[in-house]
């Protein structure tokens, strides 16, 4: 007898195969049909590759990085781009180097236990009450995002600590509201923290790469932080209050000093701060300092170090013999993600540079009458679409590849300044917090058994709505000033 799980896998496999067949058919249809009036042959070919890759990335009959490789090969082979170095060279983009460096820096934090020490230090100082514990965990999640870009790594670091707290507060899986809320907040805060720091997910690096390439901007680490920090803090605070009201924990009187003592014991067990931890802390402090002063270095020193250069220098220092803290084998670099991102850039840029994107958007705008709507209304619609699109497109990198170039082209066609709007929408890419399949983080917290899918969907939708409203308000005010 087949289990529900095996039946679900078979259904997924079938839909993936159907998606792959549709992708191939549409590729040949778009390639062989007469070139539409006003569209160049290169734009038509790049459109065919873009549509093929888009469907393959969503359906995933093969891994997404393999689809990217096919796209990189197809573009020069069919004449969508003039030379193969245009696509093959995508792996050398500065954003790709930034991603590689981010993975190395994350590995350094994990291997040295610096992240765990930081989390335990904060919780022993501020997590004396249930409410204080929830607030402390939210702050820890936000702070760790600067040092541990990987969402899964942050969750893996915090979950053992949360399990200790749940045991101390005598929480019962599936029954206790505090257990339900602390794990749900773990999901929400992880994704909000990710939205705050550009290096916290490769999809955000992908998004800002498109913005800089398509608008000629030079936005970097501090621009993202200054833009996203307010929406994260406001959304996080309102979502925290909403969750606290939704799941009443006023009757919880267990814990207090015992919680603090158990966490303190965990901290003591780590021993004194090691030389490797001190080195890592210094490397990260200097890295953050360089990123924070990037806009002023030229005036102060006569030269400036870019965000990417700073990251690569820090990566090198982490890996250097005797000076560094890890070796190459310990560096957990996800090369499949690097190749996917390179392919996404190559395909997206070819589609844009050939004029294919602008041709499609202009026709789309005229067909549905977007050009007759108030530009402010269009902006709000796009912000909401970006945040809630994760219900359809679960992969952040795919959403960034699809949405950000489209939003920029659409904004330009409607005479809307594309930079503030694209940045506002980019801040919503990390909002993958309503269902377990949307992120490994969601699945990790769900596996603890303290909340069910309905709980996550409820609080996730509330948080997404709050975030959409907050980002929309900031778009019309704050973002018009800083971008």
From TrEMBL:
Keyword tags: Membrane, Transmembrane, Transmembrane helix
InterPro entries for the chain: CitT-rel (IPR030676), SLC13A/DASS (IPR001898)
UniProt KW Membrane keyword: yes
Topology in the lipid bilayer: Multi-pass membrane protein
Molecular functions per Gene Ontology: transmembrane transporter activity
Membrane-spanning ranges: 16-35, 47-75, 87-109, 129-148, 155-172, 192-212, 224-244, 300-321, 333-351, 377-398, 419-439, 459-478
Cell compartments where the protein resides: Membrane
Gene Ontology cellular-component annotations: plasma membrane
Family: Belongs to the SLC13A/DASS transporter (TC 2.A.47) family. DIT1 subfamily.
Protein name: Anion transporter
Species, as recorded: Finegoldia magna (strain ATCC 29328 / DSM 20472 / WAL 2508)
